[in-house]
Amino acid sequence: MADKNTPDEDIRIVNMNEEKHIFTMLVDNEPGVLSRVVGLFSGRGFNIDSLVVAETIDPKISRITIVTKADRPVLEQIEKQLNKLVNVIKIRDLTGPEAVKREMALICVKAKTEYRAEILRIVDIFRCQVVDVGREHYIIEVTGEAGKLEALIQLMKPMGIKKIARTGPLALIREPN
Amino acid sequence: MEMTGAQILMEVLKQEGVDTIFGFPGGAVIDIYDELAKTEIRHILVRHEQGAVHAADGYARASGGVGVCLVTSGPGATNTVTGIASAYMDSIPLVVITGQVPTHLIGNDAFQEVDIVGITRPCTKHNYLVNHVDDLAKTIKEAFHIARSGRPGPVLVDLPKDVGNATSSYEPLEEVNLKSYKPTYKPNMNQLKKIVQLIENARRPLIFAGGGVILSGASDELTRFARKTQIPVTTSLMGLGAFPGTDPLWLGMIGMHGTYRANMSTGACDLLISIGVRFDDRVTGKTDAFAAQATIVHIDIDPTSIRKNIPVAIPVVGDCKVSLDHLNKLADQTNLGDLRQKREKWLDQIEQWKSTNPLAYKQEDKIKPQYVVEKLYELTGGKAIITTEVGQNQMWAAQYYHFDRPNHFITSGGLGCMGFGLPAAIGAQLACPDKLVVDIAGDGSIQMNIQEMATAVQYCLPVKTVILNNGYLGMVRQWQELFYEKRYACTCIEHAPDFVKLAEAFGAVGLRATKPEEVESVLKEGLSVPQPVIMDFMVEKEESVYPMVPAGAPITEMLLV
Fold it and tell me: Which fold has domain B2-169?
């Protein structure tokens, strides 16, 4: 029987309390581990905003960085549930300023003659670089915090963005001075 | 020493103390079976792989050990999924070994190939695909370690056929050390001290215990704690037997079909000490209204259980037994005052709830299912191991059989899996050959794994099946009666086999009672014969389980008889 005590109202309230958090975890670098992590999110109805995964300096260990949106109790659950996975060695919430965060994007922008100089000027100001040049396009590589990438994308939009590929953020805790 | 994978598997199983395996052979595990037959390990040939897992589950619960299954690849593996999911929900330690096609064929859609590791990832505590024979011994050791430690659960090991045949040098491994898996057994003492302080000041304290208490073997500690502090006790379905069902402090089960006094006490208590529970929706009803006046303490070995469904003031991550042991010591050192006087009003109130709305049913011309369970309780002196199917039979068993001991009530609580009781009874009987084991069943549920009667007969296991036969899928019918204006859509299963003849066809004993006055004699006869028995009780067709809390309502708002 459907539960009659969950009116739509409640759901909206929950949405208002949602926060974006970035979790980073060290996991065994084995087949199926990513599936365990992702399956946990889908199976329990948690959401994934972005996901980055690659090997660490130790080839037996990978680092997974996940951005998720949820309210406080659910965030607590996400962290605990991830920790419970046998293959997750360590997990940390790196949402705060104690961590450095960087994203990357490859932006393929239309580069008609009249815009070429303007695009290069913006690339220069944003300290990013052109990694591929054609008669009608540039591919720009940009790294930075999410805000910088957003700003660049907004400036490129009028020229016409043909394609874009973005990573989610990576995060690393700052070492004490 | 150079050994084949199959031989190594046997060595590790022996080292882990495995004496019984439930299974069903097939192409992918034929080499393992060949080695198994050379060992002392007893193999129980079930008639369906689901039965193997439920039997291993029953074996694990009755013995307190790890249940082990061995099945083949493909359909053998997929048939275990329901049993694994049930064990996962109820935190039962199992190691399920599935055969797999040879490694070079994996991913080729080979005959009887299925990605069972992928399928069971969300319903196992952990699982493995063994790619190389060199990893086999370590993997099996880890599987047992993970299954039985922390919050227990099922672990699946998928074993490709060629890994079983390949050879490797084998040295027994003593210890398992997983850097990413270290359950917390020892609780935070400061948190425990806070609990004792809360008990000192509480006026209406209540203990709510669950399956975790039974799993950690903490029943004695719990009983001591409750008696020492004079705090009344309720449990979840999974916790029945964790506290003596005949103790004056016992309130009966909590939740959807909990007793009036247990649910009312939860609504009124000012301190709720929850131990080894996970606040299932069948326990809490409407979560906002659950124990709304109480400071909630939650002790559990699994941090994810804490604050998952219910906000908690004092969380304690730790083993139930270790925590209760410390709490008992702390309580000994503390002057709790004159508890009799302190609790008088609270216990009087509870007594009043008990007398105004006790568990009850009306005795009529037809056999009442509750009466059958009551008689069973009486005739067995409350000492039988009871397994159940799922639905009304399960709830009546929980309400009317008063469990005094842990590991004596074996039921599929979380998953609510019909067809559980008979194979679980077989497993429990193998674990406890000298005990009386009774499956309380419905006519619907029993048909889901009735084929296991053949297993019971083959191995001379005198399990007793009590069918409360009402010709309906009774629990769903009850919901249809209450919430769907008696539109009994597809819940009438009158077209059932003659269970007496069916029992006889299996080589078991079949008995039937159609009138209340026959109940006692049928039970007496059925319980005393040394064979497996099916007792078919033709009960009142439209009897319902009360009290009942409609789904999503506060548990204090009960429908009473």
Answer: Rossmann fold (3.40.50)
Return the residue in B308, B482, B491, B549 with the most chain A beta carbons within 10 A, the one to mutate for interface testing: B308
ipTM here? 0.92
pLDDT at B249 over 70: yes
For CATH 3.40.50.970, list the domain ranges present in chain B: 2-169, 369-538
The pTM (predicted TM-score) of the whole model is: 0.95
Read off the pLDDT band of A8 (50, 70, 90): very low
Looking at CATH, the fold of the domain delimited by B369-538 is given as Rossmann fold (3.40.50)
Cβ contacts of A60 within 8 Å, gap of 6 or more: A28, A29
CATH superfamily of A8-93: ACT domain (3.30.70.260)
Superfamily of domain A100-169: ACT-like. Chain A, domain 2 (3.30.70.1150)
Which among A1, A28, A89 has the least Cβ separation from residue B483? A1
In this prediction, residues B86-112 reach a mean pLDDT of 98
Query: Average pLDDT of chain B?
Result: 97
Task: Give chain B's contact residues with A (Cβ, < 8 Å).
Answer: 117-118, 121-122, 125-126, 129, 146, 178-181, 286, 302-304, 307-308, 311, 479, 483, 550-553
